[in-house]
Amino acid sequence: MKRIGGSLKYSVLIITVLLCATFHAQSTTYSPYEARMINYVNNGFSYARKWDSLDVARQTLDSCRNFLEQYPRSFARPNVFQYMLEVSALLNRPGEEIFPLIDSVLTYDKLPVTKLRVGQILIERNLDTKLGEDIIKVVLPQLTVEYHKIRALRTLASVDIMSGRYSSAANRYEEALKIDPEDLSLLRGYLTLSGIMEIPGRKKALENKIYEIEARDETEYAELADNGPNINKNLHDMVLTTIDGYPFRFSELKGKAAVLDRFQFWCRICVLEFPALQKLMEEFPSVVFIFLNSGDTADELKKIFFSKKEFNFLAKQKILFTDKKYYNKVYGHSVPHTILLDKNGVVRYEYKGYMKNFEELLRENLKRLTEE
Q1: Which of 78, 100, 134, 334 has the lowest CB atom count within 10 Å?
Q2: One-letter-per-residue 3-state SS of 204-253
Q3: Beta bridge partners of 351
């Protein structure tokens, strides 16, 4: 890849790390702290990318620079460089800072999927659209995972649309839909393109396809609610920790129906549930609503998230933290995961993921539980 000059500060950092890696290639370092660094950058990126926590992003970026200076031969350096690239792009850093990071990322990781992401950043940031397009075209035949192939084709289609190459973009969508004919994001993108191209027949066919898939998915979502793996489990013997560090015994819920909503802050569809849950909290004051979090600390919730408009209502709710005992009892790690308990603590309904009819389904089932 052609290198483009960067600021002296960042060039010196990158060159220093690469020289260290060259001269000490036989002694890559590992320590528990270095292992924790991978989780640190992954969590930091989740915060920065999803909720515009720019201060967190900047702080973590500074931590990465300090880490690379302290551990120039760390096994974690590929992850750290990738994080620095993603967050520098997110923070709208200039190309002179981003291109040296791209070089570093590709020095340590030559996987096609990594090159795909580099191409996407070049295009999304409008740093070098032609170079990004060329990179993705080269790696597309090398991608083996269907999801990555679809990402590549969707990105190439977006470049085609920006360039006015609508027929080429349509071909990209057609190729991607051969991989997954029911990918709703692809179908919606192709629908928009068909409107631009003014092809009524194709537009109508796509609208019908989208409607059929959405209707089927909503039906399946409703049918699975009382057939999940946790149905009929009694959870009154569980004890979890509150945000203030106190134990909460689920046996205290005896005689009350309850909603357990497990979420994480990086999960966009979790946030889609929150307005519905807030409505239902007002409609069913006798029902106890409990929000279960995993992956964040109490301080992070209080200092970072509760001040944001998407989450500020949670500051007044009952927040509990999941642990190993919870997952030994309750099957399922995906989020959002919403469980409805009857007055005896038995799981009667559960919903994994989110659908547009989520609020309607919960309302109907909460009526049943409160009337029993």
Answers
A1: 334
A2: HHHHHHHHHHHHHHHHHHHHHCCCCCCCCCECCCCEEEECCCCEEEHHHH
A3: 338
Query: By C-alpha distance, which of 316, 225, 226, 310 is closest to 264?
Result: 310
Q: What's the average model confidence in pLDDT over 310-319?
A: 89
- Shortest CA distance to 266 belongs to which of 16, 53, 19, 32? 53
Residue for token digits 């570093």? 104
List C-alpha distances in Å: 16 to 8, 110, 179, 215.
12, 20, 43, 56
Torsion sign over Cα 104, 107, 112, 115: positive
- What pLDDT digit, counting tens, does each position of 61-90 carry? 888 888 899 999 899 999 899 989 988 888
Q: Which amino acid is at 278?
A: Q
Closest CA to 120 of 84, 145, 157, 146: 157
Dump pLDDT digits (tens) for 149-191.
Answer: 999 999 999 999 999 999 999 999 999 999 999 999 999 999 9
